[in-house]
Amino acid sequence: MRFLFYLFLLISVSSFAKEVLIENGLKSVPVIVGDEVISITRNQDRKHNIMKFYQGTWRGKIQPLHPFKSPLVETVAELEVIDYIDQISHGDDSILIVDSRPQSAIMITGKIPGAVRIDTKQLLSLEDRKSAFKRFNVAWKDNQWDFSNAKTLVLYCNGFWCGKSPRMIRKLLILDYPANKLKYYRGGMQAWRSVGLTTVK
After folding, report:
1. This prediction's pTM
2. Which of 24, 73, 108, 152 could be a cystine partner for 68, CB 3.0 to 4.6 Å?
3. Mind telling me which InterPro entries this protein's record contains (predicted)?
4. What's the half-sphere exposure (Cβ side, CA atoms, 13 Å) at 196?
5. Where are the beta strands (DSSP E) in the chain?
6. What value does the CA radius of gyration of the chain take, rounded to a whole number of Å?
7. What's the CA gap between 122 and 3, in Å, rounded?
């Protein structure tokens, strides 16, 4: 009986000591965000639960896996987003991670490391678009947009029930942004949080 007790204790301790990996053989991805090195990892506390903000199941409307007319807009998941962040960290300035939520949501949930906040409201007027598109490396020439050097945008919002990033992608498509340079992270911050990945304010 005592042997079984110690065996159970040993199994319990070993299970708690087991690392929570991003994928097989990968515990962390160190990335450079501004002047800071941040390690993207998963929360190692096996008793950790998703934050209260994302526990409600009632909100929003479920978004399709591919809610866009153009088949060239790609839907991506966590590992692809991490890979894009890693590419940016290694000097690829042709990619931008875009958080399309209001600042109030970011203050509550944090954001994905390296993401910049740009929402649909910043695309309404021509002057606002010029400011946003400058960050996308899109120029205004001869009264039209020049997308020849446009960045690949990885857009996300709260989750697969949130319409903010799909709405922004549709707006960008209307403005003739190259569809093959638009990536939709459907899971958004809820999915990112649900697997315990690193966030920043």
Report:
1. 0.88
2. 73
3. Rhodanese-like_dom (IPR001763), Rhodanese-like_dom_sf (IPR036873)
4. 16
5. 28-33, 36-41, 74-76, 95-99, 116-117, 139-141, 144-146, 152-156, 182-185
6. 20
7. 66
Length of the chain as a residue count:
201
Give the integer Cα–Cα distance in Å for 102 and 99.
9
Report the C-alpha gap between 93 and 115 in whole angstroms: 13
Q: Measured between alpha carbons, how far is residue 36 from residues 32, 33, 90, 157, 188 in Å?
A: 6, 5, 13, 24, 23
Using an 8 Å Cβ cutoff, are 72 and 179 in contact?
yes
- Whose structure tokens read 């110690």? 6
Q: Which residue has the tokens 């708690």?
A: 16
List the end-to-end C-alpha distance of the chain, in Å, as a whole number.
51
Among the listed residues 190, 200, 183, 1, the one whose alpha carbon sits nearest the alpha carbon of residue 76: 183
Q: Is 17 exposed, middle or buried (0-12, 13-18, 19+ CB in 10 A)?
A: exposed
Q: Tens digit of pLDDT for each residue in 89-122? A: 999 999 999 999 999 999 999 999 999 999 999 9
User: DSSP letter at 192?
Assistant: H
In angstroms, the CA 98 to CA 184 distance is 10
Domains and CATH numbers, the chain: 22-194 (3.40.250.10)
Residues 52, 157, 200, 15: is their CA dihedral positive or negative? Answer: positive
